[in-house]
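Operator note (shift B, R.M.): manual run for 1,5-anhydro-D-fructose reductase requested after the automated queue skipped it. Running by hand, logging everything below so the morning shift can see what happened. Input copied straight from the record, untouched. If output looks odd, do not overwrite the archive copy; leave it for review.
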Amino acid sequence: MTVRWGLIGASTIAREWVIDAIRATGGEAVSVMSSSSERARSYAAQNGIPKHVSDVATLVNDPEVDAVYISTTNELHRDQAIAAARAGKHVLCEKPLAMSLQDAHAMAKAAKDAAVVLATNHHLRNASTHVAMRDAIAAGKIGKPLAARVFHAVYLPAHLQGWRLDKPEAGAGVILDITVHDADTLRFVLGRDPVEVVAFSQAAGMGKGVEDGVMGVMRFEDGILAQFHDAFTTRYAETGFEVHGTEGSLVGRNVMTQRPDGTVTLRNADGEQQLPTNARNLYEIALTSFHAAVAGKGHPSATAEDGIWSLATGLAVVKAAKSGSAVKIETGL
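Run finished. Output pasted below as returned.
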């Protein structure tokens, strides 16, 4: 079965990563929608997409479209995903799923009622480095996990700044852009859910009053503490992910990235060893599992429920940073 895709949003991430992943995994990109008809036309021509439209209804009601990839700004996701589901289209949606948990649950309900797949595009859980860390923890290689540390402070390049820095109503700021990825990757690697957060945010001048940096701590089930630092403002920092347990530590370097890069080192009483990883494209892994789910042969790598968990955690971080208090994470699941 060849899954035929419509793109809702003529986005950079689709152009740089997702269109190629669709094609590499046996799918076809058949249509693209942008509210600007001229942008839709030029984007389709530049990316070899046969059709272009300027409204969601036309795209989701196209009988030649089986699934949609939504990469518009965050406040648009709910209505677009619900329209696609009601039209019988499967949905891969960028994170965060929505601006509120109520909206995310409405998206999940629409997909369930229509018996279509709804997935969240959390690419980092597909990295072989994170899979290696998860498997090592599950195998007891570091004993009982005690603490984790994620450093995901990067520099947001000029061509991606725009609404992420100056449009609060669209979910601007580093928390709903990056911290949600931390939350999902921590859940995936630790195999546990977060229960509470504390955080401080900063507006270091990159945006117009929105947070461009945040630090905090998530408390997970079993009492595991996870420190995180996310930013748009650090030009020269590296990324990383560490998990420390009673019998050892896992140290991932340059692993919070869209590229299949980085290393993971296991440190314990026997010394150090680098865990084996591979260079498989993270988005191709996501599309492979999505196509399988559409065919009824599995589930997406990150489900709607995973997206609800990361959104709930991100919203709790926003609230904690504003209030200065610890905030419990409540998903409604």
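Quick read of the result: The first helix runs from residue 12 to 24. The first strand starts at residue 4 and ends at 8.
Leaving this for review. - R.M.
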